[in-house]
Input
Amino acid sequence: MSEVKSYLVGVFDDDDVLLDAIRSLREQGLKIVEAFTPFPIHGIDGALGLNRSRLPQVAFMFGATGLTCALTLQISTLGYDWPMNIGGKPHLAFPSFIPVSFELTVLFAALGMVGTFLLASGLGPGSQKTVFDPRSSDDKFILVFDPAKNDKFSLEEITSMLKTAGASEVNIKDIVEKH
Amino acid sequence: MNVTSSVREPLINGGKTWADITNDICRQVEGKPSKSWIIAFTISVLLLGVGVFCVMYTWFVGIGVWGLNKTVGWAWDITNFVWWVGIGHAGTLISAILLLFRQKWRTSINRAAEAMTIFAVLCAASFILLHMGRPWLGHWALPLGNTYGSLWVNFNSPLVWDVFAISTYLTVSVVFWYIGLIPDLATIRDRATNKISRLIYGIMSFGWNGSAKDWSRFEAVSLVLAGLSTPLVLSVHTIVSMDFATSVIPGWHTTIFPPYFVAGAIFSGFAMVLTLMLITRKVFKMEDYITLAHIESMNKVITLTGSIVGVAYITEFFIAWYSGVEYEGYAFINRATGPYWWSYWAMMTCNVISPQLFWFRSVRRSILATFVLSIIVNVGMWFERFVIIVTSLHRDYIPSSWAYFSPTWFDIGDYANSFGLFFTLFLLFSKFLPVINMAEVKAILKSSGDVQTGHGKTGSAVSDKESVTHHS
Output
């Protein structure tokens, strides 16, 4: 099943204008679906009320998994499965396990975190996330509104609020959504 | 908003806007390849062809085709390996360590420097496979179950640490580089005018649409990857140095090796970044993005790391005498005055003396001088590894086994192969992917563009003094 849904798209020319606009529009009670920008803007998370990303915690968990795997591998193979006498040194020589343990910690943390990021954001080869305005990857800053979720205001009201907040254009974009 | 002191030199000249940045950097991706690119690519592929022949011959016949002998068992193979890995370190330093230090000048050069890292590590890995002699048994270096029962690799061996370090380094570098490419690939996709490039760049951009939530996650990932890559890059050359330092060969058995190798790696890597970027900025007309300020900053890093390397050479020599070990002392006297004296003095001249020229501001800001010195530094760093490896090995404890190593055509051909591989990959990268990180450069435009910071159209011609009075 697919249906066509209309969105209101406000186009801004400047990141500072966009930040002020997000703050004032949210104060006026407008609900913003998402903002799309060509580069990361500091402070936009706070203005939009987004939670801080928990990906660093994910990285820590994967790193701890990597460390555990590395130590298990080295201790079980050299210590128990096939203990080798290497120059009469102890079978479990922890100082010489440090490099491999460190490398696998980093490897697991990096791959695990990047994998989680791609999954959480729905990114991957073949994935096509909605682009509301192709100029948002060039030099325009886009705010998207769902009229259905802002039924307190008419389309005209939202448009004029956006213009007052500094939008250079306000467009209506129809998106085919699959269900 | 970011505020930058007005005495800082602008990092983007030419009065650019965000749209100009997109247009300038997408131009060579979207246009037909230029004549100079085609010529360079043809030469690289031909070199690679000759190199592949030499490598196949080496694989087929064995490493006896090299000039190795009973005494000198490691020579150009390991020299080239350490040289290429070291070159790779600059890319990670620029993209990770300079990100943690919030150095804005990294944004124009990090993409190409990271690409250089990946290609350099691939070249290094090729020598690891090659020096095994039987590369089809390369998986024996991994802890896999095998037909002899559960006989495992020896985790006490630095050579095994090296396998883990290099493969982790390559993987994490590729991931870090590709994540950074995604937003720029989406820009190219959104601008694409024909179906095929929209499809290819669409798949490669992973469907990125630049939403605020995705940027927030993207920034978190970049920061943590930078935090992971920083100790990683230090660990890689540390472990490479332990391949030597944990042995009992005089000249190798020194505790100074890890920091000295890491400094040398960054030193040679920055030189290679400069060689490549000076050509790239000229050929792709990117002088407004890779400015004299960038070149000067990199030259300062070269002066610092070159001086660290110089101090390390002198310290090694001093400790060889001060330790009172006659073998250690002889190894160093032999380096400077023995049959390989020329390689020692080539190393000293190129690495210790030549970078000191960068104390002069006019030399630091001269493109010609920088280009020449960047090549001299890389020659010097190749000799450094040759000196450490060959001169330490060729006269060991028993004088009856002393020998001399001379390279054969296959030593040279296998080295040429790595250059062919490196330049072929780098040229493909520079044609099909954006060589400058557009999103990051756009993000610093307001705080570091010449017009935006009030330096006007004159750009870098404004001296520090003038801009101070201008703003006071």
